[in-house]
Specification:
It contains 4 helices and 8 strands. It is of the alpha+beta class. The model has no long low-confidence stretch (mean pLDDT 94).
């Protein structure tokens, strides 16, 4: 089964992201707006219990973190993906490191760019048409994230929460 680890932003930021995702993201119906902390990995029923225990231990070592979004960006020309860029901070980077180095699954293929996807799988023309417009509207949002989520993928391709982990040493 496929799993991943994410942080969900507040409803306010999700609603803003979904305003774009409804139109520009074919994964809109499959998963709620999120910041991926660990990309997709595979595990069986026995392994996932070990993964959950390991995530619980990592979560205990990390405090809640600030999720600050101040700009719209793109991964073009590598992919025509548009996203809300999350300002990296030590807490986010350390959490990502602890859940990716010497952890279950493979080492990430790309450098970690904390973000919330709002458009993907666009043609070059679509991308070029909308990137300027979305950047013009911009985004400015800050909140505190106090939990992370282990998700799994259902047969229909949608993702759902397997377990939620509070970030703090009092866990």
């Amino acid at each position: 089964m496929k799993y991943g680890i994410v942080a969900f932003p507040s409803k306010k930021l999700q609603d803003l992201a979904n305003g774009y995702r409804k139109r520009y993201d074919p994964h809109y119906a499959l998963i709620t707006p999120h910041m991926t902390i660990k990309d997709v990995f595979e595990a069986d029923d026995k392994e996932i219990e070990q993964v959950a225990d390991a995530i619980r231990e990592v979560a205990r070592k990390h405090n809640p973190f600030e999720l600050k979004v101040e700009k719209v960006s793109t991964f073009a020309p590598i992919t025509n993906t548009i996203f809300f860029k999350v300002t990296p901070n030590d807490e986010i980077l350390e959490l990502h490191k602890d859940l990716n180095e010497n952890f279950f699954g493979e080492t990430p293929e790309y450098s970690f760019v904390p973000h919330i996807t709002i458009a993907q799988k666009l043609t070059s023309g679509e991308h070029d048409d909308i990137i300027g417009q979305i950047k013009m509207f911009g985004v400015d949002h800050t909140e505190t994230i106090d939990r992370i989520h282990l998700l799994y993928q259902l047969e229909n391709g949608s993702w759902t929460v397997y377990e939620t982990f509070r970030l703090d040493e009092d866990n």
